[in-house]
């Protein structure tokens, strides 16, 4: 009997139909809350997910970058310093073409050092101790050392004044080429040929000339929040950041670099503040003895740092495919535009001409 009832109930449930029952509530409060929640959800997806985060786009952050730098300027010479070369090549203390370079702003020179024994100076032992105590001056005796004599005295400026006054006017040309391999997108920070922009006559300015790749070193220090004379006295490390953050759904001409500047080394009180290094020039006297001039150089190190990312809509990228046709579609100008025409926002500030 129970088995027959269960079968009947199962057959009845199998052929039954369920549907939801809608209840219309005639209430302004409930209606406003309901529509408000719906609008918040819709605004979140449209405003945050699509417009702000652009979740519908594919992003590439694996930037490939090449940086070539060129520093130019005449530092001049003092009676105690080395004479400048006629063509100006002797006035540059930086290797050309790297993304990290140093401009020397002050030197402490120890002339005509020779191998021998001499009294130790205060602040260090630049040699081997012989174990003897010898007169340092009329009133002071000190340990004797064996090494390059006379020893370096790097606690005072030995007559070579900082040359930061002229170094501040050095100019720096940055050539930056970038590529995003996922989309095959390539670009450079230089104006295109035939654009009419005179590269040698522009100077970077954050408002007037934000795209000019020629920078004055004094302006770099100022934009990094540093005082150039104080920085030149002890040395330091400045960073020049070039950012490429582009949306390829827009016109490719709108993918432009952004320059920013900062100081990279710590400003906290440290045992060795600033930036300095030593190098020596070796030579022989007429009697055949080996001599050297030891130079402790203070300078400003510049690091060019490149970062960036590009985005493109998934539908556009999928339609283009990963191949030559996709690269051409992303990297070529839009129909009706000229590849040699610069962006409309490009403006060039004219200054005294310079040949690069």
TrEMBL record:
Regions crossing the membrane: 28-51
Topology of the protein relative to the lipid bilayer: Multi-pass membrane protein
Gene3D superfamilies, A to Z: atp-gated p2x4 ion channel, atp-gated p2x4 ion channel domain
Transmembrane helix recorded as keyword: yes
Disordered: region residues: 75-95, 327-356
Subcellular location: Cell membrane; Membrane
Substrates-to-products reaction catalysed: Ca(2+)(in) = Ca(2+)(out)
Any single biological process term in GO: calcium ion transmembrane transport
Low complexity bias spans: 332-345
GO cellular component, one term: postsynapse
An example molecular function term from Gene Ontology annotations: ATP binding
Keywords for this protein: Cell membrane, Disulfide bond, Glycoprotein, Ion channel, Ion transport, Ligand-gated ion channel, Membrane, Receptor, Transmembrane, Transmembrane helix, Transport
PANTHER family: P2X PURINOCEPTOR, P2X PURINOCEPTOR 3
Family: Belongs to the P2X receptor family.
Name used for this protein in its record: P2X purinoceptor
Originating organism: Serinus canaria
Source organism phylogeny: Eukaryota, Metazoa, Chordata, Craniata, Vertebrata
